[in-house]
Amino acid sequence: MIKDNKRIIFNGNNYSAEWEKEAAKRGLLNHRTSVDAYGELLKPDVVKAFEKYSVLNERELHARYEVALEQYNKTINIEAQLMVLMANRFILPAAYRYQTQVAQSVSAVKAAGGSAKEAKRALDRLVSLTESCKATVDKLETLLEHEGNGAEKHARYFRDKVVPMMAALREIGDNLECVVPHDVWPLPTYREMLFVR
To answer: Which helix (DSSP H) or strand (DSSP E) does residue 30 occupy?
Structure first.
């Protein structure tokens, strides 16, 4: 068994760049997204194997392919819409509120004759993150207005445009979570979710 399957056995991290190189060297498939992997179901050899053992016929495989794409599209759409809602309803208002507090502090220190140099840098960082968050939310919202013509094209659009924008928004949100104080931040933090208070 080991001799027959040695070519595909890898005891490292199958999500690492190391494995991508190793898989290519071994001539193995390594689809990075489910959208890429779904198409394997429709390859002639796969269809033939399913039919040979009376598991599924070609029409049934196509149906499963379409269902998988539709499910992917709906899931990404729901998750992206939820991100837009959470950013607009919770994250941005908290960031604006804290931004105002820091700006008032900087103004008060300057009015009293202090330099507030570090507080001003903190304010600049907060303003930059908040502006980036708002711009990214708007971009994601615009991307979600896309009308797909066919499940496969729509899935590729989500994979190539929407998912990367979701990742960008998540990164900005994570950075804001580290800056905005606990009493202003309206959502559970990672720490609270992992180690319940």
So the answer is: none
